[in-house]
Amino acid sequence: MPLAKPKLAQEDWDEAVRTNVDEFDMSAEEAVQAATEEFEARYDLSAVLRAADGAAAAAAHPVALAAAALRAALAAAAAGNDGTADTTAAAVAALAEACFPSGEEARQPALAVATKEDAAGLLLQAAAGGGGGSGSGDGASPSSPSPSPPPPPLSLPALRLLRRLLLRSADARAGFLAAGGVERCADMLARSLAASPCLPHVADAAADAAAADVAAASTPPAPPTTQPDWPRVAAVVGCCEAACVKCEEAKCLFAAHVPAGGLPAPLAAVAATAAAPCPDEEQAGAVASGGFVALLLGAVLSSARAPPAAAGAAAGVLRALTYGDDDSALASRAFTHARLLAKTHGALRGLLLALQRLSKEEEGEEAGAGVEQGQRQQQQKDEKAGKAAAAAGARAGDDDDADGCALPSTRAEAVAAVLAAVRSVAANDDACRGFSDDGGVRACLELLRRAVAAPGPGGAATTAAASSTAAGSPAALARASAGALRQLANSDPVKTLLAGDGALDVIVDAIARFSGGRGTKGGGKGGGGGKAAATASAAVASADDVAPSADDAKRERHDDENDDANDNESDSDDDEDGPSPASALPDVLEPVAALLAAMTLRQPEIALAAADAGAVAALCGALGRLARPGGGAPAGGGAPAAAPAAAAAALAAAAAPGTKASSASSPPSPPPSASAAACRQLCLAVRNMACRGGDGLRAAFLGAGAEARLRAAKAAHPGACRDVGSAALRDLGLDNYNA
Q1: Is 444 part of any domain?
Q2: Do both 358 and 227 map to the same domain?
Q3: Which of 126, 694, 702, 722 is 20 to 30 A from 299, alpha carbon to alpha carbon?
């Protein structure tokens, strides 16, 4: 891992520019260019304004002027002056416009000035409703039994802008922590959830009983129940998620946070029920019982009233806590957090509750047992209120979608966020088994089945422009559900469960569909799927009585090598900001093929069942399509190759620079990284099936043209496919597998 560059201070930059001007008689432009060339290779210049006089330029920058206006407005509000709400809202809007000007080059200096002006701290004050350091406008204790005052109208725009800054700038995340952002956001979350003394719906009967005891013991009687402030809950939790991105310190602080003043009584009952005492005293502080995480699970994810934005943001926080993405940290506690979240807090059960509720609502079904009609009507009112609040602060969040900073706005997007959290939290075998026992594996498989069957990318009427993994699309749902199942399939009992529930048929259809085939079982028309599957079954059956060959013992020794490769691939990062339409199908195909590779690893029975389902033709057809720059398949699709050497030469020629596409209607070539990742997983799937599938299955692969396609994949993507392609060729019984 390369060492992080030290940050260059603005004062050092200004001194170097003055030296260039005074001692070397450079013009201002030449001095700036020389200083850039001098420092760029050795220092991080993200906090520097590359100007002749950086300090003066920073003071006159629009961000500095807007921050000064916001600071003055907050000071006036703290002093109790009237009419400051409009002034503060205008200052927040001006700050949003100044921090994110049009053009990427203009944003770097704007974000640098925002860090100098402590924009994160100012926005935290604005979101909390004033200049108080406690994060509240009235200074009341968060444990007060009385309802919290309504948040200021500018709270949502300030929180949206804060999220954008946190996602864009590591310096903003550091400023967030320095300003006490963890404590302030946790306090705002508790207040937003306790907008009334009512307890959000929790499926756990023990939580309901605890809430009843608390309500019976409280005096005076609680006023009529209303909903928490869900739009503000979603915005606050979204900021918590953004603060944890590539920031190990924020992850640990949020995981261990317990409000100093305590929680309101009903919320404390939820948090206490959502977490059992941690048995490991040494790691008890890693994920605190009864703290921020327990509140997130008990009052947001498990709530039948939580809108998609809140549920998706809460799932995003859990994923961030269990994802080690901070390269500057000496060590990551991601695995520790994941283990304790699953074992101590039952996080996977909470995610499953959210997944089941959101997927049913996405289908248009009833909102689940125990959710009354009045609650559903109230949820609709909350969603309308959230839209109205978003419209009121639209100026501060106009570019959220363009920046990839927007919270999930639909149930489909929230489902994808929950599935991503499941993949990250299910970090060991015990967690995978527990999730499977609760019905989570079947729920994920049903989502994958629904996504593959839905019209969309890869279907008969699909154009290249329609092939996208846009949030909420069937392709995005397929990618998310296959990614979760891919992680869960690291457990052997889960592999057996999936194979018994028809997952292999779904996977074969998905491989054919998302690699550009027609999406029918066995690879579709012209793919030779049914014939190849029958041939494979017959060949395998004829080889059942054949004694193991000497090569089988050699292949057995290579299994451990591939175990590590599969484990590493299961943790690969597929959280890019957003794929282009050309790369959408490979992005979806990669986790689907990885799921098949995981299921067939050291599982000969599942490998034979996959061959019966048509996996041989589907894998060969997908390799034939993705190992070519044009992405198009030959007319024969997955048909057996008559001359493997000639086919390999033809595919290599197609991959040569300057080769024209075979048809003017061929889709554009996807980026190499997307196709390479998908091809790697396809090669792994071929290798795992051939390794222990016996001579019959190896003959079926060779008859379907696997050799030519594997060699073409190695030639097209040598960095990604050379090792796994050679392993697949070796386990197919070929001596020249390294050629």
Answers
A1: no
A2: yes
A3: 126
**411, 498: one domain:** no
Look at residue 289 and tell me whether its pLDDT is greater than 70.
no
pLDDT at 386: 45
Distance in angstroms (rounded) separating the CA atoms of residues 217 and 499? 52
Kindly state whether residues 420 and 497 are assigned to the same domain.
no
| Domain range for 24 | 10-57
694: Cβ contacts below 8 Å, ≥ 6 apart:
540, 543, 544, 546, 604, 608
Dihedral sign of CA atoms 101, 106, 112, 113 in order: negative
Same domain, 703 and 559: yes
Write down the H helix ranges in 25-61: 28-39, 54-59
Q: What is the pLDDT of residue 224?
A: 40
φ/ψ of 410, rounded to 5, equals: -125, 165
Q: How is residue 85 annotated by DSSP?
A: H
Longest dimension (CA), the chain: 90
In the chain, the number of structural domains is: 3
Supply the Cα-derived Rg of the chain in whole angstroms.
28
% of the chain surpassing 90 pLDDT: 41
Which 3-state string (H, E, C) describes 496-509?
Answer: HHHHHCCHHHHHHH
First to last CA, the chain: 31
Alpha carbon distance 41, 2 (integer Å): 13
- Say which range, 311-320, 627-636, 701-710, has the weakest mean pLDDT: 627-636
Q: How confident is the model at residue 299, as a pLDDT?
A: 87
Task: Choose among 81, 75, 67, 70: nearest CA to 154.
Answer: 70
User: CB–CB of 136/128 below 8 Å?
Assistant: yes
pLDDT of 338: 93
Q: Is 198 helix (H, G, I), strand (E, B) or coil?
A: coil
Among residues 41, 57, 73, the one where a domain terminates is: 57
> What proportions of the chain, in percent to the nearest 5, are helix, strand and coil?
65, 0, 35
For residue 299, what is the DSSP state?
A: I
> Do 416 and 541 lie in a common domain?
no
In a domain, 465, yes or no: no
Q: Could you tell me if residue 201 is inside a domain?
A: yes
Tell me: do 555 and 421 sit in the same domain: no
Asked if 277 and 410 sit in the same domain, the reply is: yes
Q: What is the 3-state secondary structure (H, E, C) of 151-184?
A: CCCCHHHHHHHHHHHHHHCHHHHHHHHHCCHHHH
pLDDT at res. 596 = 97
Assess whether 282 and 376 both reside in one domain: yes
Buried b (16+ CB within 10 A) or exposed e, 245-255: bbbbbbbbbbb
> What is the helix (H) or strand (E) element at residue 18, kind and residue range?
helix 10-24
**Token pair belonging to 449:** 């089945």
Q: How far apart are CA 245 and CA 319, in angstroms?
A: 10
Place of tokens 């809007």: 93
The residue whose two tokens read 């209303």 is: 226
Residue 121 lies in a domain: no
**Does residue 255 have a pLDDT over 50?**
yes
Please say if the pLDDT value at position 339 is more than 50.
Answer: yes
Interatomic CA distance for residues 266 and 199, integer angstroms: 6
Q: What's the chain's average pLDDT?
A: 74
